[in-house]
Amino acid sequence: MNITTITIGRRRCGKRRQGLYLEGGMDGSPEGTLNHFVLLDPPIYYPFKSRVPRLVNGDAVLNNLPTEKFWVGSSAEHEVKKNSNAWWADLFGMPATLRLKIGMCAGMTDEDRALETIASKIKNSGYLVDAFRKMALTGLDSDLPGLYSELHSTLISLLSENTVANLVKVQSIIWKMAHRTRPAKLETYLPIYREFLVCMGLYEDATALTSHFSKGEL
Amino acid sequence: MATSLVTVFGTDNYELHHAIDESYTQGMARRVPPTFIPEGMIIGESKIFGAHPHAIVVVRATDRTLYELAEELALGDRGGKLYTELYESHKIMQEDIDSLEAWAESRMGESPVECPYLMTLIAYELSKSPNRSELIKKYGIEFYQGIFGYSPFTGFRLVLANNVTELPKEYEHLLPAIEAGIVQVSYVRYKDEEKK
Fold this sequence. Notes:
The complex is a heterodimer.
Chain A: E1 3-8, E2 19-24, E3 38-45, E4 54-57, H1 58-62, H2 73-92, H3 96-99, H4 111-121, H5 128-136, H6 140-143, H7 145-160, H8 164-180, H9 183-199, H10 203-215
Helix pairs in contact in A: 5-9, 7-8, 8-9, 9-10
Chain B: E1 3-8, H1 16-26, E2 28-32, E3 47-59, H2 66-76, H3 81-88, H4 94-106, H5 119-128, H6 132-139, E4 141-159, H7 175-179, E5 183-190, H8 191-195
Parallel strand pairs in B: 1-3, 4-5
Antiparallel strand pairs in B: 3-4
Helix pairs in contact in B: 2-3
């Protein structure tokens, strides 16, 4: 193994530690064809806060294409995964990783199987409207206004369209509400959230909701 | 198509002008995990793009414009690049001025956002201005992150601590890439240490 010694200027971020580095513009090139650096003016809007280096298609960046066209390789895979994680989280009302650990989906290894299980067990007992009436008396509409109105409109849809998709949405909103409820208010709202899940035949989830939130684990 | 990479400069160590000045003199280097050898990185073709959270400046004060800010910055640094662009090179045209004026009103509504010409220089001058805080207040400035430039990719380098003579275990998987010349292995010395 040939080990060279390079002499470089000190950077503001400090000395180089042992490790792998990607280098750009080091020493230019002997023929002068490579610059150390090319200034882009105007700059290109890049709204991603992560400090992790991201792989991109340089032409897409330089042509200022929409940012979703930037990604290549593992960064593109990461974007797909991120979108898919957000999709599952919206569907379950919690991150998929958590969904696979608790309640009726505990121990499952994939999201599709978890969704199948929820869809096969979920039902409309006809008491959801009663549960919602109880909720309306608690003042939750001012504590979680966005989720409250989403639940309200989903229940209205459910009255006209009694579909599994609508029921899955209701259970997702209930979990989201539980996550967003302030600890001081949990004692009031938890029994109502549980009642919703019981009304939908999700008994294991109702138990899981109580035990997890009571322990303050979620 | 060669794969390129974007690295974000943190404001802890780098104001925008530090990032640009350092990139001009030394290029860019980014420490990456030992397993990070992406496919498609081609020397000379791939680029390392540098992004900074303060590369895009938006004037929010309703009674001021970006062009006024540019003028104030230029006059504060006569002989600077922005001064040259605005007053000496005659490269800036009326439509550029209009574009700078319009930008202040656009309020970043569109995405992707197309910044006007001179934005990088304005942000650069603002970052090194001694009156930076006052100007930020006066013009109601908000910053947005942007890619301010790139260095052509020149290769991977495994830096070893000076007392290490064998390839450390955690980098053994790089041996084929080292033997193929894709990864250079080096000790590092610093110019200022050499002078001493």
